[in-house]
Specification:
The protein is 47% helix and 11% strand. Strands 1-2 form a two-stranded antiparallel ribbon. It has a two-stranded antiparallel sheet with strand order 3-4. The N and C termini lie far apart (140 Å). The chain binds zinc ion. The site of zinc ion has 6 residues, from loops.
Length: 343
């Protein structure tokens, strides 16, 4: 006995007598030749791969023969699948007829290609024949070669427009079994066709929310930069530098500034007050070392004799003596000024 299953005229599977193939087991009789074994395995493998496609073919046949509703019901009762699934399978089978199918690709593979243009999909299948791509990466591969998701931007973007509820209610019966927005769109399109051509049709850029945010952010940044550059340019032209302004003033004949009389400089710098070392202040971020700001930088003498000698020298320059003091901060001697109140 020859158990045959015809899937399409192109594929004819026959299982030899010496094998029993059931959904749960494959029995192969002892003494089966190597050639027969290969025939069995090839047949079973083909049947296994055909599993998906035949459901679609069967549903499509039933729909074409007995109509959509009854055809699906018949197939559902015979296969145990839901009519909903069978209808989808029939759709895939119709879009990818047996002549366009290639061994190695399942129903799931063809389903992934539904959104792509048909002829493109057929070429894609041929291009990848024998590559054993899993169906879940098949779509990704197709998008990569197609250059994106074909589903996107299929539908033009819509805007919500509020209209009065009573007007909507009056429009509703006129839209028959279509949606009201389609009726409104049609009415508006007819209206706009009758309008004089004074207002040019705006160019509409379709972009995602992310793309829009990005574009707007870049525009804001560019505007800020332009403003900054403009301000800088204004500032440059508005106000000359001090040197330029001063040169202008002199050219305009202002009185030259009298040079100050330079104070008598002695060769020894006298300490006018006691030296202070580093102090620590309690700053908000912990104790901070603090060098009290002082413009006094008295001359340092590293022996008392040097300091005393300097005092004499200072007397010849200034006409008065200072006091020789030991400074623990600088670890040296200074000449300290004697204020008249101390004397
Ligand atoms: Zn000192």
């Amino acid at each position: 006995m020859d158990t045959s299953l015809v899937i399409s005229p192109q594929r004819h599977i026959s299982l030899p007598d010496m094998c029993l193939f059931s959904p749960t087991e494959l029995q192969i009789a002892a003494g089966t030749s190597e050639l027969d074994f290969i025939r069995i395995i090839k047949a079973v493998a083909a049947l296994d791969q055909a599993e998906d496609a035949w459901k679609g073919d069967a549903s499509l046949f039933a729909i074409k023969t007995w109509g959509l509703k009854h055809g699906l019901e018949v197939t559902a009762s015979a296969t145990g699948y839901r009519t909903f699934s069978l209808r989808k399978m029939a759709h895939v089978a119709e879009e990818f007829p047996p002549t366009k199918r290639i061994n190695g690709f399942s129903f799931a593979h063809y389903r992934q290609l539904l959104p792509f243009p048909r002829e493109w999909s057929y070429e894609f299948i041929v291009r990848h024949a024998g590559e054993h791509i899993p169906s879940n990466s098949f779509r990704a591969q197709a998008e990569l070669e197609y250059g994106g998701n074909p589903c996107k931007s299929k539908q033009p973007k819509k805007r919500s427009v509020l209209i009065r509820e009573d007007l909507y209610a009056r429009l509703r019966p006129h839209s028959a079994n279509r949606k009201v927005h389609i009726l409104i769109e049609r009415v508006l399109e007819e209206w706009i066709r009758t309008q004089p051509d004074i207002i040019p049709t705006p160019t509409i850029i379709y972009e995602s929310a992310t793309a829009r945010h990005k574009r707007e952010a870049l525009a804001r940044k560019a505007a800020k930069q332009a403003l900054r550059e403009q301000r800088e340019a204004e500032l440059k032209t508005k106000r000359n530098t001090y040197a330029e302004r001063r040169a202008q003033q002199i050219a305009d004949g202002v009185k030259p500034i009298q040079e100050k009389e330079t104070t008598v400089k002695y060769s020894i710098r006298v300490a006018w007050r006691e030296c202070r070392g580093e102090s620590v202040i309690d700053a908000p971020d912990g104790p901070q070392k603090y060098q009290s700001k002082s413009n006094q930088n008295p001359t340092k003498f590293y022996s008392e004799q040097d300091a005393l000698a300097a005092n004499e020298k200072h007397f010849t320059e200034a006409g008065y003596h200072e006091q020789v003091v030991r400074c623990e901060v600088h670890n040296c001697w200074h000449l300290s000024h004697i204020f008249t109140s101390e004397a």
